[in-house]
Amino acid sequence: SQKIEQNSEALNIQEGKTATLTCNYTNYSPAYLQWYRQDPGRGPVFLLLIRENEKEKRKERLKVTFDTTLKQSLFHITASQPADSATYLCALGVRNAGNMLTFGGGTRLMVKP
Amino acid sequence: EPEVTQTPSHQVTQMGQEVILRCVPISNHLYFYWYRQILGQKVEFLVSFYNNEISEKSEIFDDQFSVERPDGSNFTLKIRSTKLEDSAMYFCASSDRANEKLFFGSGTQLSVL
Predict the structure, then answer these.
(1) pLDDT tens track, chain B, 113 positions
(2) I need a labelling partner for A52 at 20 to 30 A (CA). Which of A19, A29, A71, B19 fits?
(3) Cβ of B55 and A98 within 8 Å?
(4) Rounded distance, CA B48 to CA B92, Å?
(5) Which residue of chain A has the CA closest to B32?
(6) How distant, in Å, are the alpha carbons of A57, A69, B11 from that of A62?
């Protein structure tokens, strides 16, 4: 069966450190993968998109990698700040699926001052 | 910055009643979506809509659900006869191109009693 797995346990890190979040998937051949941030009671906010032929994407303090052999994406936040505390969702998109995104369960990140 | 607007923010209804959730997507976007999130669970795809027709729908989107773009700005989700299990946060989203980032609204919290 198809699965998208993110660490359901909260990730607690100290301010200034790099946070690394993992998204693993099985039985998918995604054309692209997206990362979103979700705050409590709010809608997801887009962060980064990486396509199947790309290995890495960066945007300011954010970096995402995509390994289609390992079926894994890593999401990094460098120099983390308490304001980065939120739930981070990965979402897969496949070809010819009407732009449907399939979301993982998210990982809650807590950055402590 | 343009945003997706959803109304109402909260809706309480009795089981068996019809509800209409309303959304105003970003004005130059062409692709529209509904997702939902049951408390503590994943964000789930319901339906995508392009060129005035449904392009993809999930198993959740059964005959009790329908979508409409009644004019040039609104996008609605109707649930004909609500069930207890329809209680969730419903998110509308839009995008300007296929297979690109989605812009989500803040959601409508639907409670079916």
Answers:
(1) 889 999 999 999 999 999 999 999 999 999 999 999 999 999 999 999 999 999 999 999 999 999 999 888 899 999 999 999 999 999 999 999 888 899 999 999 999 99
(2) A19
(3) yes
(4) 10
(5) A99
(6) 8, 22, 36
